[in-house]
Specification:
Keywords: Plasmid, Signal. The protein is an alpha+beta fold and 97 residues long. It contains one helix and five strands; from the N terminus they run αβββββ.
């Protein structure tokens, strides 16, 4: 086989490979995923962190589920008149054997 024939074969293989990868890329669907937003929901509306709502005689604030998390889930938390969280008392499980 001559050098010229080898160059033609290499060029043919290279062009076939490029065409195959371009057609594959065109057929592959691209999926874009939105980052989840940290919001509280109330009556079908989104509320950002720090939002206040009044329900009955209680005031609720949209805040992190756990105070020490900066990027955790947000929930509605009861607050008193001074703005302090009123957390539910922690349940203590007592196991008797």
């Amino acid at each position: 086989m001559t050098k010229n024939a080898m160059k033609r074969i290499n060029l043919l293989l290279l062009s076939t490979l490029l065409c195959a990868t371009n057609s594959y890329a065109a057929e592959t669907p691209r999926v874009f995923v939105d980052m989840p937003r940290r919001v509280c929901w109330y009556q079908g509306q989104e509320y950002s962190e720090g939002s206040l709502i009044k329900q009955f005689d209680w005031i609720f604030i949209c805040a992190s589920r756990h105070e020490n998390e900066e990027n955790g889930n947000l929930i509605w938390v009861k607050i008193d008149n001074e703005g302090n969280r009123i957390d539910k008392p922690k349940r203590v499980n007592v196991r008797i054997n």
